[in-house]
C-alpha cells in the first residue's frame, strides 16, 4: 500500500548545472501543482540551500503570485536577524522576485517569549493554508526543500533527539538545538513524509561522509534517511560531485 519509493539521486559535476537543473525541477513541480490545484505550496530550509535557488530568478514560467512559501524550519530570532532563515531566503531569493508578501509565511516573532505558543501559531498558519483546502490529516506540500548538516540533521530534526518520534504535531519546537541558535521551530516527520516531493540539496566536500551514511546505510536511521514520503510522494537528492563522491547508491541521470 503506502510503500515509499526509493530516493532518486542526481549528482552534478558542474555546480551551475546543479543550480539550473534544480530551478527547472522546481518550475516543473510548480506547473503540475498549479494545473491541479491552482497554487504551489513550498517549504524551504535555511543554510546554504537558499543560494542554490537563485537559478529561479528571472526564469520565465515562474508564477510567483501562485506560490505559498513556508519555512521547513526557522530559528527563533527576529526576522531581520542575520541568523533568520527567512532573512537569508529573502536576501537570496524572495526580495528579488515578484512574490506577494502575504504569500510568504513567517513565524510570529512577537510570541518568542513563549516558544510553544509561537510553534502553535505557525501550525495554525499551515492549517489556514492546508486544512480547509485539502481537509487532510497532514498537509501535503507540493515541495519541501531540505539541507543536511555534517552531523546528519535535516530541517531542525537532529540525530537522537526526541522530536524524531513526533507523530502528531505539524510544527514542533526545540530549545536545545546542537546547531546554534538553540531555539527553533521545525516541520515534523509526518509533515515531511506526506509531501508530494522532497528535495535535498547538498553540495561541497564537507558533506561527503554524512551523505554516504545517509544513502548507503539508511538502517542507521539518521534523520535524512527517515525522509521517505508515502506513495506517491518522492524524495530526490540534488548533489554535486564532491558531496556524493563516496556514495555507492545508484545515481540517476537528470532529465525532466
Ligand atoms: O536552519 C537551519 O540550520 C537549516 O534549515 C538546516 O537544516 C540546514 O539546512 C542544514 O544545517 C544544512 O546547512 P548548510 O547547507 O548550510 O550546511
Automatic annotation (TrEMBL):
<comment type="function">
    <text>Hydrolysis of 6-phosphogluconolactone to 6-phosphogluconate.</text>
</comment>
<comment type="pathway">
    <text>Carbohydrate degradation; pentose phosphate pathway; D-ribulose 5-phosphate from D-glucose 6-phosphate (oxidative stage): step 2/3.</text>
</comment>
<dbReference type="Pfam" id="PF01182">
    <property type="entry name" value="Glucosamine_iso"/>
</dbReference>
<comment type="similarity">
    <text>Belongs to the glucosamine/galactosamine-6-phosphate isomerase family. 6-phosphogluconolactonase subfamily.</text>
</comment>
<dbReference type="InterPro" id="IPR037171">
    <property type="entry name" value="NagB/RpiA_transferase-like"/>
</dbReference>
<dbReference type="InterPro" id="IPR006148">
    <property type="entry name" value="Glc/Gal-6P_isomerase"/>
</dbReference>
<dbReference type="InterPro" id="IPR039104">
    <property type="entry name" value="6PGL"/>
</dbReference>
<keyword id="KW-0378">Hydrolase</keyword>
<protein>
    <recommendedName>
        <fullName>6-phosphogluconolactonase</fullName>
        <ecNumber>3.1.1.31</ecNumber>
    </recommendedName>
</protein>
<feature type="domain" description="Glucosamine/galactosamine-6-phosphate isomerase">
    <location>
        <begin position="14"/>
        <end position="237"/>
    </location>
</feature>
<dbReference type="InterPro" id="IPR005900">
    <property type="entry name" value="6-phosphogluconolactonase_DevB"/>
</dbReference>
Amino acid at each position: 500500500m503506502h510503500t515509499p519509493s526509493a530516493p532518486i539521486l542526481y549528482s552534478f559535476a558542474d555546480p551551475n548545472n546543479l543550480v539550473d537543473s534544480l530551478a527547472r525541477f522546481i518550475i516543473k513541480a510548480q506547473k503540475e501543482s498549479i494545473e491541479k490545484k491552482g497554487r504551489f505550496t513550498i517549504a524551504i530550509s535555511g543554510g546554504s540551500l537558499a543560494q542554490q535557488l537563485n537559478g529561479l530568478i528571472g526564469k520565465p514560467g515562474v508564477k510567483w503570485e501562485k506560490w505559498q512559501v513556508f519555512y521547513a524550519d526557522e530559528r527563533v530570532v527576529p526576522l531581520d536577524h542575520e541568523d533568520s532563515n527567512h532573512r537569508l531566503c529573502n536576501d537570496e531569493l524572495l526580495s528579488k522576485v515578484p512574490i506577494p508578501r502575504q504569500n510568504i509565511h513567517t513565524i510570529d516573532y512577537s510570541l518568542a517569549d513563549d516558544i510553544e505558543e509561537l510553534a502553535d501559531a505557525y501550525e495554525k498558519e499551515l492549517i489556514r493554508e492546508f486544512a480547509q483546502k485539502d481537509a487532510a490529516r497532514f498537509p501535503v506540500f507540493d515541495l519541501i526543500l531540505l539541507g543536511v548538516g555534517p552531523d546528519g540533521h535535516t530541517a531542525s530534526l537532529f540525530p537522537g533527539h526526541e522530536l524524531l518520534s513526533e507523530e502528531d504535531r505539524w510544527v514542533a519546537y526545540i530549545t536545545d538545538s546542537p546547531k546554534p541558535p538553540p531555539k527553533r521551530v521545525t516541520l515534523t516527520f509526518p509533515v515531511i513524509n506526506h509531501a508530494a516531493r522532497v528535495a535535498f540539496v547538498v553540495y561541497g566536500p564537507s558533506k561527503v561522509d554524512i551523505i554516504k551514511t545517509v544513502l548507503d546505510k539508511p538502517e542507521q536511521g539518521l534523520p535524512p534517511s527517515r525522509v521517505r514520503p508515502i506513495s506517491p510522494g518522492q524524495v530526490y537528492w540534488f548533489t554535486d560531485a564532491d558531496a556524493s563522491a563516496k556514495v555507492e547508491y545508484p545515481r540517476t541521470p537528470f532529465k525532466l
